[in-house]
Amino acid sequence: MQIVATNWQVYQITHSPFALGLIGFFRIFPIVIFSLIGGVLADAMDRRKIIFIAEFVMMLSSFLLGIITLAGNVPVWTIYLLTAVNAAAFAFDTPARHSLVPNLVPEKELSHAVTLNNTQYQSATIFGPVVTGFLIASTNIGNIYLINTVSFLTVLIAMLHINIKRKETALHLISFKSLKEGFHFVFRHNLIRSGMLLDFFATFFASAATMMPIFATDILKVGPEGLGILYAAPAIGAVAAGIFFSLFPHIPKKGLLLLASAFIFGLATVFFGISNIFLLSLFFLAVTGAADTLSSIIRHTLRQLVTPDHLRGRMNAISMIFFMGGPQLGEVEAGIAAGMFGAPFSVVIGGIGTMAVTAYITLRNKALRNYQ
After folding, report:
1. Residue 15's domain is classified under what CATH number?
2. What is the DSSP letter of 179?
3. Cα Rg for the chain, rounded, in angstroms?
4. Residue 280: pLDDT over 70
5. Which of these, 200, 204, 198, lies nearest to 360 by C-alpha position?
6. Smallest Cα–Cα separation from 82: which of 53, 55, 67, 62?
7. CA distance 160 to 6
8. Coil/strand/helix, residue 74
9. What pLDDT sits at residue 171?
10. Number of structural domains, the chain?
11. Beta strand segments in 18-108, E
């Protein structure tokens, strides 16, 4: 809800594609700075406590954004600042949360757990944007932030009821040496390294999410209600893909499926950029969501299976820089390109870039192609 509301609010205040794309910078900069620290802490401390504190900070930033918005005359820099605070907390939350999953389920069930977790998340992103779109049209955006604030309470309560058995790691792990150990593991492992590079470059080029307010307002002319549906469309495709993967978890040649999904993601992005018909645009966005989910499940499961538990926090932190850095920096790039050449051109060129990068990695990386 908050992402949709923030993007719409910034565009309504500035009417600038560059200002809209700049949100991506304030989302990724704190992640680059703090995620590595978050990864080290996730391997050295109680992951539940880290998640609890991080979620509380995100709840507080959402509350402040709501109060400031309801007060009126919102300076755009306050949105950027609170977005950065939220991203900093997210940088600690994500490595701990992703590393917690293997502590909760047996290894043989990890693929199912990852699929279920992804499907549950995508289900929420179907209803969240749609509801947000109608709320934007009917109430003050500040109320949306306050509703989002309340939603964080469910996570905080859940953290209080999770019990895990995990061997505690010595506190000497909180050091530069432990951080170096994480980098050494990730970049020496060919499959993890290749998956992260694909993650970064594919999403860097094909990041169209921040441009949605421009498409909803100026191209498709569907207003805030249509904006919510546009944001929900990829999640619908993602849920369908998640259900498919849960029914057929043992698909052979997962490496080829991963690469094919990334290529289709880029191709569907191109068609979305070309389309000026609302229903067609929704279809192509749903395809991007399905393709992205298939590749994400494979990449995430692969990383968790090959990484020892005492390194998972650092691996997930480094991975987060790539899978978050790609789309967020891509939003800045898309904003600049959209300001110069228009949003459709920016999206189309990005999709072509994604296909080119995927084709290059497919041809150059035999190990990833042959991953089963």
Report:
1. 1.20.1250.20
2. H
3. 20
4. yes
5. 198
6. 62
7. 30
8. coil
9. 43
10. 1
11. none
> Domain of 206?
2-369
Nearest-angstrom CA–CA distance, 152 and 157: 9
Q: How many of the other CB atoms lie within 10 Å of CB of 181?
A: 17
Q: Token pair for residue 264?
A: 């289709």
Q: How many residues comprise the chain?
A: 372
Residue 49 amino acid letter: K
Q: Which two tokens stand for residue 354?
A: 């994604």
Contacts of 19 (CB under 8 A, 6+ apart): 10, 11, 13, 76, 335
Q: Give the whole-angstrom CA distance, residue 173 versus residue 169.
A: 7
Q: Which is more confidently placed, 156 or 191?
A: 156
Question: pLDDT tens-digit profile of 46-101?
Answer: 888 899 999 999 999 999 999 999 998 889 999 999 999 999 999 899 888 877 87
Separation CA 32–CA 313 (nearest Å): 15
User: What share of the chain in percent tops pLDDT 90?
Assistant: 17
Closest CA to 36 of 91, 73, 89, 90: 91
DSSP conformation class of 370: T
How many Cβ atoms are within 10 Å of 281's Cβ, its own excluded? 25
In degrees rounded to 5, what are phi and psi of residue 9?
-65, -45
Residue 62's nearest CA partner among 34, 92, 83, 90 is 83
- Both tokens assigned to 197: 């590079």
What's the CA gap between 58 and 156, in Å, rounded?
A: 11
Distance from CA of residue 365 to its chain's centroid? 25
Helix then strand then coil, % of the chain, to nearest 5: 85, 0, 15
The whole-angstrom separation of Cα 236 and Cα 125 is 8
Say which amino acid occupies 21: G
For residue 363, how many other CB atoms are within 10 A of its CB?
Answer: 10
How confident is the model at residue 119, as a pLDDT? 67
Q: How confident is the model at residue 169 (pLDDT cuts 50, 70, 90)?
A: very low
Closest CA to 307 of 207, 187, 220: 187
